[in-house]
Amino acid sequence: MSNITTIFSDRIIKEKEKRATYNKYIFNSHLVMFLLISFGAILFNYSSWLDIAKNIEMKSVLLVLLIIMAYLLSTMKIKTFIKEADSVFLLPLENRYKEVIKKLYIPTIITRIFFAIFFIFVSYPIIKKLGLLDNNIYVLLSFIVSIVVTIIIYTIQTYKLVIYGTLDNKYIALTFVTYLLSSILFVLELLNISLLVVLLVSYLYKKYISVNVNWYGAAEYDSSRQEKYLKLVNMFVDVPIDVVKVKRRKYLDILLPSLNEKNFNKENSYNYYFLRAFLRQENTIFLVLRLFLVALLFLYNFNNMYVSFIVIVSFNYLSVIQLLPLYKRLTSIIWFYTIPVKNEVKLKSFKKLINIVLAIFTIILVLIYVIITKDIIYSIIPIILSLIINNYFLKKLK
């Protein structure tokens, strides 16, 4: 326990090995080939769109790209690798944690710089087409340098706030505004003030930084980071997410039907409860929405009947195999047994919910397919195939 750098080096290595294992299953040869083909199709459509797009459309897309870049740079999690038990066992080595931080800076900074440069070069064809920056490559390079410096300063400051202080939403909002404004000001060929704002924000937040490590806060932050990663991976492979978190989302309450006496009879007793759990349990509704958005992206870029059928059917396949474990997780919660109803009735209610949810998203995808391809005759095919797949997997649930 005397060498804190060895302890954290082991944790870093173990996380890399775990992620490498997940990546091996996720990025198999079929998916890699599919992604390469998709990337080529996106590039081709992007190039074709630039030739026909109006100025207002290009400016809108450019603004969206800059907003996405600013959002990612300001919300990307940093890695602390601190655990709750460290507050006890590593407390005597607290002063030596600075050695660990210095090794964590560089990978985080490199990752953020990569994302920034990627978005800048994706945006550059639009900037060039609009005639902004006078097609001056030196201005673009100065912007990249400014963004890189901003990333370095903000990353170091974020580490200090997470480990030695408190990282609040106000600070994240300020970083988002800084990145976005600096990008917009450069595109408009106005004075870049991002570095001044960064230095000002860093100075103002110095009062939140202490000399002692905030063990519990840093541990909770890193646990949240790992949980978000596992939820993303869980879209493709099973991962050990043991804790089921329930969170009320008021904006989704509109989807909940009003309670009445019908909700408490034997047939409908669990319909309401399963829908409530689906909307509030963190790893369900957004999982389906992410898959839905990916399916939309492929439908728009390929504009092909056969590819569209595969995408819609794949959406149902990936959704249903990821939603089935939800039933087992819900059976481990005490409220599942509060009403004396047979398991067959509960299972029937759960299957009904999954069928309704997937049917709604499938119909939306098919309607978008019809709008894009103008093909109504064959649109029933993916619906039938999706129903067959969903029923096949739902029958296995017991």
TrEMBL record:
Keyword terms = Membrane, Transmembrane, Transmembrane helix
Q: Which InterPro entries match?
A: EcsB_ABC
- Coiled coil segments of this chain: none
Its transmembrane ranges are 25-49, 61-82, 104-124, 136-156, 176-205, 284-300, 306-327, 353-370, 376-394
Any idea what this protein is called? ABC transporter permease
Origin species: Gemelliphila palaticanis
According to the entry, what is the taxonomic lineage of the organism?
Bacteria, Bacillati, Bacillota, Bacilli, Bacillales
